[in-house]
Design goal:
- With 158 residues, the protein is mainly β.
- It has 2 helices and 15 strands.
- The longest helix has 7 residues.
- The chain is globular, with a radius of gyration of 17 Å.
- It starts with a strand and ends with a strand.
Length: 158
């Protein structure tokens, strides 16, 4: 993959951009319609399953968030942050899921984000709804999936 064990191994490059950089292509070029420019775009993104029982991850978390669904995400590589809009989550207190939360946005730091994952569950699942990736104003359908994970969060906003 493009990321292996928390380290970025390459960039998502279509044929044209790979040739311009003198590198091998790693992704595929996609566009929303024949009128749009082809751009390197993901089609299916997921985090591989780990070995930990998801119940252990919750039990070992003194205070945190248990997120079931995110509806959108964006990244600001220049600032080194990503923003994730969470639509369905519970608070974790003393190793137990407690009250449901209203939708909110979390901010995470990109440098070291994947390396900061200290627990990865064995329950990889793909979202049953079609997600979209918007790049250059072009929305395209993508598949996404992840197991239960624990990661550091910089900021939570209502």
């Amino acid at each position: 993959g493009l990321v292996d064990r928390g380290r970025v191994g390459g960039l998502l490059l279509d044929r044209r951009r790979a040739e311009a950089l003198g590198r091998s292509r790693t992704g595929h070029g996609r566009c929303a319609s024949y009128r749009d420019d082809v751009r390197p775009r993901m089609g299916c993104t997921f985090l591989a399953a780990g070995r930990t029982d998801p119940r252990e991850i919750v039990a070992d978390t003194a205070s945190g968030l248990f997120i079931r669904r995110m509806t959108a995400a964006s990244a600001d590589p220049a600032a080194g942050t990503a923003y994730l809009r969470v639509s369905d989550a519970d608070r974790i207190e003393q190793g137990r899921r407690t009250k449901p939360l209203r939708p909110f946005v979390i901010e995470v730091g990109l440098p070291g984000l994947l390396a900061g994952l200290d627990r990865i569950g064995n329950d990889l699942a793909f979202d049953t709804t079609v997600a979209s990736c918007i790049k250059g104003g072009q929305p395209l359908a993508v598949s996404v999936g992840a197991p239960t994970i624990r990661l550091p969060v910089n900021k939570v906003s209502p």
